[in-house]
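Q: How would the structure tokens look for this protein?
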Amino acid sequence: MTEATSVTQGHRTAARRIADMLQLLQDSVAIQRRIVRAGDTVYQVGQQFGCLYIVNSGFFKMVNLSGEGREQVVGLHFKGDWLGLDGIAAGQYGCDAVAMDTGEVWAVRYDALLQAAVRTPALLTALHQAMSRELVRDHDSLLSLCTLPADARVAGFLRYWADALAQRGLRTDQITLHMTRAEIGNYLGMTLESVSRALSRLARGDVIRFIEKGRRDIHIPQVEALTSFIQRIAAPMTAAALH
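A: Here is the predicted structure in token form.
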């Protein structure tokens, strides 16, 4: 089995898992559906926790305020992701959940979810898996911020976005970034100018291509090229660290 075939099968498995999980929720617990549009807030930091939210469609960002009162993007979520997990421990949500485009979220009362899980243990498994994936994402994000140079961080961000789309059965050769350059920089711990320079270098290397309308639409001829780009940049740093 080639690496490309293995990746494709992994994406198909993820797509099936997401579809099965959404169907399980519909069959097992009361759901309140909500249509949101870009800029709508699903919940706000400090709001009393009562529900978990599952993304059925659209793109969402998690936003915190820094000590200086500046907005900080701390997470991105796609179809099948659970929102509000950070509210379980403290009894209140730890950030704002904001829609980046038109989409739909499902609200599920946490107490009702736990009661339903007694009858349907697969619900508890789905919740634990969502928590685990959140921990892995946070770990990977922190590792990227601490170890990768700017260009590799931007390439990694594009690969993450493309992989998230592939896992949901969507095309990855042409993606629309529902974030400004400033928001991407905010998320990656970079300045707007650094993000723009990194994107320009990726374009000059033909790793990505800009589609004219607004330059938020990006053509990625081969997602694997992003991985190769990251490896080329990271290799000298790894070698230097060993000496």
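The first strand starts at residue 32 and ends at 36.

The radius of gyration is 19 Å.

Upvote if useful.
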